[in-house]
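RECORD TYPE: protein structure
NAME: Starch-binding associating with outer membrane
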Amino acid sequence: MKKSVICILAAAASLCLPSCKKFLNVQPIDKLTGNNFYQSKDDVVANIYDMSRTFFGKVNETHFIGATGEYRSGEVLSEPQSDNGPARAFVEVLGRNDLLGLINGNPPWNFYNFYRITDWTGYYQVIQSANILISKLEAGVPGVNETEKKQFEGEAAFIRGLAYFYMVRLYGDVPYYTDAYHSTALPRENMVSVLNKSIADLKTYKDGLPWTYADPALKGVRASRGSVIALIMNMNMWNAGFDKPNATKYYQETADLGQELIKSNAYRLLPITEWATVIKGRSDESLFEFYRSINYGDQNTNLAPIGDMFLHYPYKRPEYTHRISFAYFRAEYMQKLYPGTADKRATIWFNSDIYADNGKFMMLKFAQNSFATGEEDANPDNTFMIFRYAGEMLLCAEALAELGQDDQAIALVNKVRDRAEASRYTGGGGQDLKDFIFLERSRELMGEGHHYFDLVRTRRIMNSEWSYNVLTLDKFNRGAWTWPINSSALANNPFMSLNMYWVNGGN
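PREDICTED:
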């Protein structure tokens, strides 16, 4: 049994030898990926949920969203007077881009298990499951009609594409495959090529998915056509930053897809006063999320939600360990985002200490839906948002601005600002507009894991106007924006290489 499990994990990482093929004939107990499953539509649906759970496991195993998407540009500082203050200093270690110091040795934050971010096995388990499911659907599953087949294939292709997108942003080049039961060793493939292949793959399945679901419990939870469009848009915008000769093509496709998303009328911006509904999940604004609810007995790692770092009593309990927040965004940065003009986000998403520069600061954006009735140490009961309508409207606006279609870009930006009851953008086009859209994404998506990746793909990470942790061009080109890859990736794969920037000491 132990030998079979080892083979499963190795194959999932696309690193195994052909001798591991025998695991494919073993019926797994807790993962629906074997030959003996897919005997009914229920099996297929169960497998789709299982892939989502496996993917969420990577988000849930550490303080993932903050560590990967928010802190590495230095805007966040720790509050030394908070409970277990030295352990919260990891935000500043990330802010210096000292990833080796984060995961090596014996620092006081070891209980966060940040080293797990370097291990891509979980993503490849999702990819393998998706590949097998699509293969089984193509062969035919009893009780699944043609419409359902296309939908299920689209859902599998989406979660597969999302896994590749996450890995590209974390590691750069990665091995790519879509065939079921893959067993041969592969080298890492150029990340632009990986995303272009993923885009082409997603396009073949996009229109087989519904725009949304009649069952409100499935909105944002199951992949839809809007989910796929959002993913392709994000892939295109990432490639635009790294494949400059073809940037116009990526911008045009992002703009076209954004307009298709808007014209569908399948999604909407909820009033800012209904933000609790958005962050709880399954709303008309959600394009894709990992929905979690205490009512379902979901077991979230208490350290995983980003709100854990920026909330204190009465939103976090017990009071004696949560009198102040563990961390805060620099006052200078907050003043840049909210310079005093009208914007309801400044008062609904933050407490009155928005410029405090200490642990009095709270990001109330993630304080909604608190369920604590006693002194239990638990976070508010919110979803883990991946893509939502406002973010894709702003991504479309960014693409339009890059194409010189300033009026259309401004119109989209102002729709997002109107929802926030913020003053409208009345400036000009060109670089001023592009910079404003970047700041608007920073405001609108704060804490949702996009900021650092926006800095990287736009190369603002190399400019002190935009980042407290500036990367030089040399460091950027050598991959200082990536994460280290766990050395286990080298096992049984003579074609594999690690990220040399980190192998060479991170300098």
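COMMENT: The domain at 210-468 is CATH 1.25.40.390 (Serine Threonine Protein Phosphatase 5, Tetratricopeptide repeat).
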